């Protein structure tokens, strides 16, 4: 086993693999229970390699287990191999992509929470971290979460090899500080010699007996263990072994390896987890709103999620202590056992949600103020690489939140989510379309983002209106529209108000609700623009950069004769009444009407 690890890890990050060799051997061929020929089986124990740069040791373990062909290992990091530089779910034995450090444990917490409380199954979750990685705050958000929820099916392994990339990690080999920190965070903690196989076997066995607490195995190791002239020395992170030293080092390693006379095979898991139910989820009844009713889209989100929860047991909700603002509380009240309070730790919340959604165990909706998803952007970006289907719901977008001021206003969230390759961006403008956005996102692959607003706005659609991803609604039109106005959320309602004012003066405008900003319904927008002398006005409660206006511009950019005027928030806003702020930033009905040009008397 060791042989293939070590032979193979001569490229990539060999020293990071060597410190973890015994840990991985004991984990894969003693502690963990899984079907080696079916790595993504729902009953298997999960393993997350948070220190993803040690990918070769993971690939070697799966080669030893028989799932990866040994001959494939030499294709590590090549363009046509799935054995990439860091693990991704292109490989059946990887649930979440890692490599941006500090993210594995949050996802592992989501898997363990799901195993213990939703699946109520016996599979366990193991997560290996580097010591350098432990400087990431997100690691400690996850540590706090794991003990708060008594995840006794979760084991974190800290590979304390003393060294980081460019210098030693801050605590070096001070194992007592690690012990105190882990214990202070409420974890059952064992400090062990990470190169002592028997000690490791014992620690993993003990961890399985502990109830009510997750276990942290803090393993003292040496970076580059077993590599003569390299072990425990600085300046060897992420470096291949020099060609002229490979032969000597391999010979030395081979002489230490005791070839076992039986093939290693892991124990099988308990068959106590049902296969994932992949059937589509639909609302149990149509939206129960009447045109003209007033309701904020954030509130409609709560109603929608509760209805979806009635339709499917798989729907779960997460929030970061904003549940009575985002209205995820409505779901929690109906289904307390399917709600996870993540407290004020948005990075961890996104990681946990991704963990919950892995292997399709749940359909997860995580909500927060849209502004605060920005601090989880790296988790979201990695979520795309992880092929996650998680749904993120951001409330309190834009200046229309009013008095709370700029720190609470999401004004860059559309840009952020549009840039995510797998993301569908919903921006519903009334309660009916919000309900459909929630339903659609539960069945849409990739990340979904739903942007909801704080102010109450009128219901404009009837309950039987059909919505589709990438299909816009023309909400106001006549035979002589002079311009196409595209708004979403509060600005759609401002656009409708502008249309009324202008109509009274004899000028008609066309108004479009895009429904999804990504994908954007370019065909409807183009057809409308052509019908309105090529004139488009976009109006958004978002900064100009990367928002609705830019999305429209890129959709019509190659079309001749189309002019796009963009109304958007410019500069840092301030506290004030929502309507005052819409006026100051030029995105209210008054400014939309002005942008449409003077009314032409008939
Ligand atoms: C968020 C993040 N920051 C920086 C890096 C670059 N990087 C990759 S490995 C590494 C050092 C990791 O040290 P440690 O966690 O101790 O792992 P080891 O390789 O020593 O086992 C760094 C800085 C990264 N991958 N992710
Ligand atoms: C190999 O097998 C023989 C007998 O079949 C046994 O006596 C010996 O202990 C085994 N060696 C190892 C390393 O397991
Ligand atoms: C949320 O609930 C708490 C506790 O009931 C309350 O004090 C707070 O004002 C509520 N916040 C909002 C925005 O409704």
Automatic annotation (TrEMBL):
Main EC class the enzyme belongs to: transferase
One GO MF term: thiamine pyrophosphate binding
Protein name: transketolase
Required co-factors: Ca(2+); Mn(2+); thiamine diphosphate; Co(2+)
Matches recorded under Pfam families: Transket_pyr, Transketolase_C, Transketolase_N
Oligomer and partners: Homodimer.
PANTHER family per the UniProt record, alphabetical: TRANSKETOLASE, TRANSKETOLASE-LIKE PROTEIN 2
SUPFAM superfamilies the UniProt entry points to: Thiamin diphosphate-binding fold (THDP-binding), TK C-terminal domain-like
GO cellular component, one term: cytoplasm
Family: Belongs to the transketolase family.
SMART domains hit by this protein: Transket_pyr (SM00861)
CDD domains referenced in this protein's UniProt entry, alphabetically: TPP_PYR_DXS_TK_like, TPP_TK
Domain (Transketolase-like pyrimidine-binding): residue spans on this chain: 295-459
EC number assigned by the record: 2.2.1.1
């Amino acid at each position: 086993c060791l042989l293939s690890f070590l032979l193979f890890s001569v490229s990539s990050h060999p020293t990071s693999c060597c410190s973890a060799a015994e840990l991985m051997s004991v984990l894969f061929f003693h502690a963990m229970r899984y079907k080696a020929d079916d790595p993504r089986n729902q009953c298997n124990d999960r393993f997350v390699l948070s220190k993803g740069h040690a990918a070769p040791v993971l690939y070697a373990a799966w080669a030893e287990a028989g799932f990866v062909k040994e001959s494939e290992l030499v294709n590590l990091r090549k363009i046509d191999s799935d054995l990439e530089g860091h693990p991704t779910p292109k490989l059946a034995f990887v649930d979440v992509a890692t490599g941006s450090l500090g993210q594995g444990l949050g996802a592992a917490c989501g898997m363990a929470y799901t195993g213990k409380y939703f699946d109520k199954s016996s599979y366990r979750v193991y997560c290996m971290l580097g010591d350098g990685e432990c400087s990431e705050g997100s690691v400690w958000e996850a540590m706090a979460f794991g003990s708060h929820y008594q995840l006794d099916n979760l084991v974190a392994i800290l590979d304390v090899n003393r060294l980081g990339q460019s210098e030693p990690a801050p605590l070096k080999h001070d194992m007592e500080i690690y012990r105190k920190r882990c214990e202070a965070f409420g974890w059952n903690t064992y400090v062990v010699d990470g190169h002592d196989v028997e000690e490791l076997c014992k620690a993993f066995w003990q961890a399985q007996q502990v109830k009510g607490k997750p276990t942290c195995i803090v393993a003292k190791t040496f970076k580059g263990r077993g590599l003569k002239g390299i072990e425990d020395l600085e300046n060897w992170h992420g470096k291949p072994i020099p060609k002229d030293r490979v032969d000597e080092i391999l010979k030395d390693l081979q002489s230490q390896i005791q070839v076992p006379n039986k093939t290693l095979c892991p124990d099988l898991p308990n068959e106590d987890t049902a296969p994932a139910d992949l059937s589509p989820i639909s609302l149990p009844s149509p939206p129960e709103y009447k045109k003209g009713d007033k309701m904020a889209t954030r509130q409609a989100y709560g109603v929608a999620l509760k209805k979806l929860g009635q339709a499917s047991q798989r729907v779960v909700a997460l929030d970061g202590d904003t549940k009575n603002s985002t209205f995820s509380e409505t779901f929690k009240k109906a289904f307390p056992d399917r709600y996870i309070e993540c407290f004020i730790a948005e990075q961890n919340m996104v990681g946990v949600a991704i963990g919950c959604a892995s292997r399709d165990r749940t359909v997860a909706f995580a909500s927060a103020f849209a502004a605060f998803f920005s601090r989880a952007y790296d988790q979201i970006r990695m979520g795309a690489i992880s092929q996650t289907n998680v749904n993120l719901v951001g409330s309190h977008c834009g200046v229309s939140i009013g008095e709370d001021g700029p720190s609470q206003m999401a004004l860059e969230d559309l840009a952020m989510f549009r840039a995510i390759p797998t993301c569908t961006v919903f921006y519903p403008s009334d309660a009916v379309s919000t309900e459909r956005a929630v339903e659609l996102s539960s069945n849409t692959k990739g990340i979904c983002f739903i942007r909801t607003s704080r102010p109450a706005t009128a219901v404009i659609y009837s309950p039987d209106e059909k919505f589709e991803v990438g299909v816009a609604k023309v909400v106001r039109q006549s035979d002589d529209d002079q311009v196409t106005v595209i708004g979403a959320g509060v600005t759609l309602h401002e656009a409708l108000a502008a249309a009324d004012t202008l109509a009274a003066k004899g000028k008609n405008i066309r108004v479009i609700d895009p429904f999804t900003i990504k994908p954007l319904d370019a065909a409807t927008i183009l057809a409308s623009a052509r019908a309105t002398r090529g004139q488009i006005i976009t109006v958004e409660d978002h900064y100009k950069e990367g928002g609705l206006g830019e999305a429209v511009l890129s959709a019509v950019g190659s079309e001749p004769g189309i002019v796009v005027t963009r109304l958007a928030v410019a500069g840092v806003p301030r506290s004030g009444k929502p309507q005052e702020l819409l006026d100051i930033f030029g995105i209210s009905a008054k400014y939309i009407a002005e942008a449409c040009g003077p009314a032409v008397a008939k």
